[in-house]
Amino acid sequence: MPIPSKGLCHAVWLLICTTRGRRCEDIQEWVRAAKQAPVYTTSFYDLESAASRLLDIGLISTVETSIVVDRKLDDAAGDSPSEAALERIAKILISVAPPPWFKTAIVNDELNMAFVPEQDRNNSSWLGVFFEHMMVGLHSELDPGAEFRAWLGQAGESVVMANEINRGRNAKQVSKISDRFGYDVESTNGKSRYCIEVKTTTPNRSEIFHITKNETRKAATLRDEWKLVQIILRSEALLITKERLTSEDVEEARTLDAATLLSLTPVDKNTGIWVDSAEITPPPSAWKSESLNLPKDWQFSGLQDATGLR
What's the chain's average pLDDT? Predict the structure, then answer.
């Protein structure tokens, strides 16, 4: 479904208000009743298209020969067509029927507008900066594994941060600032700088990892300053009953340098390029063991505490 325009959301609001004060047996009667509302703007909106869209995506139903609007949509509309109400309506319409480019355009919690068709860019212009925030938020909400992956990644970055600091280095978790760095932790020791991309996993998934195009670009640019560190947590670290992770939950750490990583990633050719991320399966010989020196009091929130899972 295309991104809803402001006019479409306003038409939806008018239709919702109509069901609150009048019983309508079918779509045609519903649209006619909305057009009779004492609001001069009703003639400006395509009420037929709005009603058809709600029917197509299942946000209206017929109960005892009456049109009934989905409760969440009704609540979102509020009592007036304010900007906030129309934004809430747009969010629900998109969440129920996301556009086909939805998964491709959102990478590392950022919306790449290059993947958004011109019609949808025009339709979304009324939303301003809220559009990107809404789409990124919906991407996380509609991806049930996103919260777990975020926790897993943060756990590994916490291990690397603690390890670097315990070695006497100055470490900064740049992933909290932006994903555009192309690595997660920046560590310095005098004139030396280490740009560390962290991949966290468990023993049964340690053979593979995903790398983004931006991360490989930074590996190619930074070369000897860049490396990938894979943190392998013990399977027990994922238990819902575990309140805190400690150093005993870290099974292993190993690294790939930039040159090795680049030798394993796909190469862009005239016949095609890779855009989002690539799945990498390094041979065992490619990895180098990384010694960890975690402080004895290192801890990280367990899965239940961090995500609210029960």
Answer: 89
Confidence band of 61 (pLDDT split at 50, 70, 90): confident
Quick: pLDDT tens for 210-247.
999 889 999 999 999 999 999 999 988 888 678 899 99
Which of 105, 205, 91, 100 shows the shortest CA–CA distance to 149?
205
Interacting residues of 275 by C-beta distance below 8 A, sequence separation 6+:
104, 213
What are the DSSP E strand ranges found in 66-140?
A: 66-69, 106-107, 110-111
Domain ranges of the chain: 6-142, 157-307
pLDDT digits (tens, 9 = 90+) for 64-106: 788 889 889 999 999 988 999 999 999 999 999 999 888 778 8
User: Mean pLDDT throughout 26-42?
Assistant: 80
Count the Cβ atoms, other than its own, within 10 Å of residue 79: 8
Instruction: Name the pTM for this structure.
Output: 0.58
> For position 306, what pLDDT does the model report?
56
CATH fit for domain 157-307, picks 1.20.120, 3.40.1350, 3.40.30, 3.30.70: 3.40.1350
What average pLDDT does range 128-135 have in this prediction?
91
The number of helices, as runs of H, and strands, as runs of E, in the chain is: 12, 14
The string of DSSP codes covering 209-232 is EEEEHHHHHHHHHHGGGEEEEEEE
SS3 154: helix
Contact 12, 88 (CB under 8 A): no
Hey, what long-range contacts does 264-269 have (CB within 8 A, 24 or more apart)? 265/211, 265/216
Question: How confident is the model at residue 276, as a pLDDT?
Answer: 72
Q: What stretches of the chain adopt beta strand conformation (E)?
A: 60-63, 66-69, 106-107, 110-111, 170-173, 185-189, 192-201, 209-212, 226-233, 244-245, 250-257, 277-280, 288-289, 300-301
Bridge partner list, 173: 185
3 state DSSP class of 260: helix
